[in-house]
Amino acid sequence: METINERVLEILRKTGALLDGHFILSSGLHSPNYVQCAKVFEYPKYGEQIGELIARKILDAGLGVDVVVGPALGGVIVAYEVGKKLNTRAIFTEREDSVMKLRRGFEIHEGERVLIVEDVVTTGKSTLEVVEVVESYGGQIVGFASIINRSGKENPFEEINQKLKGKPYFYLVKFDFPTYKPEDCPLCKSGIPAVKPGSRKMNTR
Q1: Less Cβ around it within 10 Å: N or C end of the chain?
Q2: Which residue numbers belong to the known binding site?
Q3: Is residue 137 part of a domain?
Q4: Are 142 and 169 in contact (CB under 8 A)?
Q5: Average pLDDT value for residue range 12-22
Q6: What is the pLDDT of residues 44-99, one digit of tens each?
Q7: What residues form the annotated binding site for orotate?
């Protein structure tokens, strides 16, 4: 029987989401590899399958969820698909003047159980910004989930923030791609042009 890991890898390859090159990640780190999850959601049937696989992990863990929250832009569709499968509300945060917040009339009610969902987790910075938003509304964070874990850790959130210790993190596939600080990047030193994903056409592998 095909495993979840094998199924997700198949989807990533079919949709051309696995990229090779020289990329500047949203964290500011550089990497020779990138997963462009937006390519997955170009095909609604695959996006729905991804949402179902994440939701299944949440249900199997017996986690009660009232609302799924994802940061724009990468977390918007995956949060929607997970929320659909969990039969919950699905909303997203976005930055305004560089500050992560809820807009567009979205609210989190006091005591609501919140699952924070991302497409890819590397440093966890965006997710931690969402944590602050959720807590400011009095929401109760019950866990985290993403399609890809490229943090190098099983649960980066509890290591970064001790308040999150014990909050589970679910992911579908883990990649240990190398990352470099700009000043240490061998790709830069080799003169390979760096690309911010989405800025121009990139070669898929």
Answers
A1: N
A2: 118-126, 150
A3: yes
A4: no
A5: 93
A6: 999 999 999 999 999 999 999 999 999 998 899 999 999 999 999 999 999 999 89
A7: 122, 150
- The two tokens of residue 195 are 């690309």
The continuous run of DSSP H or E covering 92 comes out as strand 89-96
pTM above 0.70? Answer: yes
Task: State whether residue 107 is helix, strand or coil.
Answer: coil
For 121, the domain range is 4-189
Domain CATH number, residue 104: 3.40.50.2020
Cβ atoms of 54 and 79 within 8 Å: the answer is no
- CB–CB of 173/149 below 8 Å? yes
- Domain count for the chain, please give it: 1
Range with top average pLDDT, 2-11, 80-89, 116-125: 80-89
Residue 40: both structure tokens together: 């997955």
DSSP structure class, residue 100: E
Tell me the binding residues for 5-phospho-alpha-D-ribose 1-diphosphate. 118-126
